[in-house]
Amino acid sequence: MLNKWKRLNFPGKFPFLASLSSLIVSKSSVSVAAKIEYEPTTCKTTAVNPNPRDPVNEILLGFRSLGFRRFIGGHYFRSIISMLNHAQVDRIIDYLRVEDAESAVDFFNLLKDEFGFRHSRGSRFLVSHVLAKERRLRELHLILKQLLQDEGSGSAPSLCEFLLDSFRDWDSNGVVLDMLALAYSKSEMVYDALFVLAMMKDLNLQSSIQTYNSLLYNLRHNDIMWDVYNEIKVSGTPQSEHTDSILTNGLCCQSRVQDAVSFLRNTEGKVFGSSVVSFNTIMSKYCKLGLADVAKSIFCLMIKYGLHPDVYSYNILIHGLCVAGSMEEALEFKDDMEKHGIGPDIVTYNILCKGFHLLGLMSGAWKVIQNMLLKGVNPNLVTYTILICGHCQTGNIDEGLKLGREMLSRGFQLSIISYSVLISCLCKSGQVDKGLELFHEMEANGLKADLITYSILIHGLCKQGEVQRAMQLYNEMCSKSISPNSFAHGAFLLGFREKGMISDARMYLDAVTMSNLTQDIVLYNIMIGSYVKFDDIEEAVRLYEQIIRHGITPTVVTFNSLIYGFCRTGRVAEARRWMDTIKSYGLEPTAITYTTLMNAYSEEGNMDTVLALLQEMEEKVIRPTHVTYTVVIKGLCKQGKLHESVQLLEDMHGKGITPDQITYNTIIQCFCKVKDMRKAFELVDEMSLHNLEPTPATYNVLLNGLCVFGDLKGADGLLISLQERNIKLTKVAYTTLIKAHCVKGDASRAGVLFREMVEKGFEISIRDYSAVINRLSKRGLITETKFFLSMMLCDGVSPDQEIGEVLLNAFHQGGDTNSVLELLGQMIKLGLLGD
DNA sequence: TTAGGGTTAG
């Protein structure tokens, strides 16, 4: 069977060496050393060594007179060594091989390691035979591995030919050829390996099961795996304990899990059949397919076969359950393993930790850590990385970075993954430049950025619209031979979208897809989302129709975007119909689909439908997210149904769905509107109890509430206290209070706050001045209006037509003719009275 | 044979 590979895979001429004679390797076991005599060397002599004698003879004489070790340690040897050519080295090694095999190997290594000498095939095989004879297989493998690195793929015919010509009857041929096949296999040159095996078969030489196993493994994605397996059986090579698990793994790789199970059933009773590893492999595959239940039944089957699940079995299953969100069951299995005397290890704890993190339940993750510490298991790099992820996910970047520093202080060398998590956090919070700093720190620490690290940064830059800088990074990545995938392309699409360059985005998409680089649906989804964002629902639908025509399968995200588009443009009924289209593709609407629709209905004031959809989600076991609840709460708030809103907030906590700051801000705003400031502040306290820091928006809502309620003193007091506590505020906090003071006519307090706002470094536009000037002038406060006007001019802001007209009107009404004339002059100068 | 990092939609 294997013979077919000789013919099929090496068509045409083999790259045989033109002349083997240039490599002086004895073809028989008669030693070259026997022929050594004094003769003039063919090697060109140099000025350094005017002695025309053959260096081979010099060296051999040296060995004889001083002994090998003493001679190679001397200066004379080192001066003569650089003159040797391949043929001469071959002769020396062959001589040593006969006299003292150990010296032959030492000499070979000395030349290679200390002098960087690249040995000939002949030398390498000579030493290989020495090592094979002594069963020094590890060293033998190393030599062959290096040989194959030099020779490359497709070299098997030539190397076999050479071996047979030069070493035909040597004792260790079988071992050397077998190791050659193994080296080919491990270097992923499987067809060369198959060629060597075929050659061995011709010569009646038996391959080892290790070589067969390695080949089986490397052919796991391919049906040829079965040819090799049959060959093992036909040749009568005894299988090892790994053989069946490698085959099982192969079947799993080929997505033939059912066949893998049947295969295992058939091997039951065999010496090495049905190993725990094989079962684990199958469980792992089922878990990866999202079928944790099936994995569980395999687990039971394993026990039925009398096998004892090991720590891997449990970890694989617990992982599958965690990913499926079944934390309770996962924890039960953890208890079960303890009961069976298998201690959960660091991997088990990390899996559980990640499981809680996936559900956004970091408190659960912390409990796992406590439990782990109690059991005397210390967190490792992976544990820390999961925790950093957790912090970052809840927006707690500083805590995440603190943990990163803690890792360093505990002597952990941050891995590329840990760095990537931190960089990702920084990018997500808009601190891309800090992310880049960390990236450089990482590289300075000797870690090489990979595709994901680059993708995170490219994405971060694009999201900020910095397409140019992203492109530089992209080029840097490509120059390091890291091939981008569609992720990077997606980032550029987002970058264009961010800058509103929709047609550029489309050109980019067309370029990427038409050059057949990728047909990734995610890219189309981003493009559809971009059209939707700019309210071009028609173009979004056209693109959708195009991908359908091209046979690309949409995802639920495709539909969610379209539904969002219809909702945004007020076409809620059509949006609803698209939900049925989702089902026609065998897809299921997600919480986002529902939330999008619910938000639209809520905006229409149709809370009945909103609540009906919430009910439908429950029936279909589609878990609402905190956003879903926030949408419902917002709708209820708008209708003044405060009690229901508070009730829903409590329901969320009960269901383990953590409200976020927006949820609280929504409901707090609602209480502010009905002037229930006491309840509003109570809710702020409640946020803190749930470890939610109020956001700048929370304070804006509260300040606005106090202002509207007429408690301007209270609002001022709150602002001062926030400033004293160095709490981050936005411009809105200031404009809210400035507005309130203007309305009340307290222009001086408004002025003070305005100065503070400017000094805080917020970007101030002409609209901020005009908001104040409008209000003051409306109240006829001419002096105060003029004060703000001069402030504006001092700040280097020129009036525009709109503000000019407001001022003219105010001065005119106040009978301030001088000011009217002065302003008119100014406006003419500025060209604001052109029309 | 098990654990940690990147995309789209509300």
UniProtKB/TrEMBL annotation:
A GO molecular-function descriptor: mRNA binding
UniProt key word Repeat: yes
Taxonomic lineage of the native organism: Eukaryota, Viridiplantae, Streptophyta, Embryophyta, Tracheophyta
UniProt name for this protein: Putative pentatricopeptide repeat-containing protein
Family the entry assigns: Belongs to the PPR family. P subfamily.
One Pfam entry name: PPR_2
PPR repeat positions: 275-309, 310-344, 345-379, 380-414, 415-449, 450-484, 520-554, 555-589, 590-624, 625-659, 660-694, 695-729, 730-764
Keyword Repeat carried by entry: yes
This protein's UniProt keywords: Repeat
Stored PANTHER family: PENTATRICOPEPTIDE REPEAT-CONTAINING PROTEIN 4, MITOCHONDRIAL-RELATED, RESPIRATORY COMPLEX I CHAPERONE (CIA84), PUTATIVE (AFU_ORTHOLOGUE AFUA_2G06020)-RELATED
Taxonomic source organism: Tripterygium wilfordii
